[in-house]
Amino acid sequence: MGARNGTSAVTMVQSGFTGILDVLDGRHNMFLALSTESQPEEMVADLGSRFYVAETAIKTFSVGYPIQSALDGLLTLRREHNLTADNVQHILFRLPTDGANIVNNSAMADVNLQHLVSLALIRGTVTFIDSHDQSLMEDREILDVRSRVELIADDSLVVPEAPRSAYVEITRNDGSKVDLFTPYAPGTKERPLDTAGVSAKVRDLMIPVLGVQKTEALIARVNNLEDLDDIRQLRPLWTV
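RE: above sequence
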């Protein structure tokens, strides 16, 4: 949406649209357009000491947000206990009720918890391409695992301090169980991604478009942005 809005703004300017300089002032200002009880002083509260960009969440997986913690929990257990589609008998998830209702057997692949956790168990990850591949919803191997996935909407998990948590319990073929509760998804302000985590995320998104060489060069440049003499040097790296 951010990219769409930026493109729309440029197109409007090219078409002759004009704007005003006092969008924050005057009778018809932005604050009144957004709220009847606006508090413009909040714009400068903690100025210079609180930086909201550090509180912005980065979605680790390109899927609906209620699935983030669930995927992280499943993939963590998969790594720690060598879980595969062949040695797992049943997978139980508990999600906050509001989130569970959004992602429970959705018709859209990237918002379907049962589909995505099955995909993750089989492949060990969920890429942008895979999560948006609607044809995988009919894949027999994924459907087989999906038949073993149970999702419960849990009212007790509806708490403001951790609104997108997830509990996962996996029963193996021998009857033994492993479980994990994930209160915060990776990429949230409570569990921020490190540089390697952000780089892995953007590789998944950019390599299919830019290729490996340009993607790695762009990541290296951005990770050392303070050494860049001219920001225009980035342009060749993000163009196809």
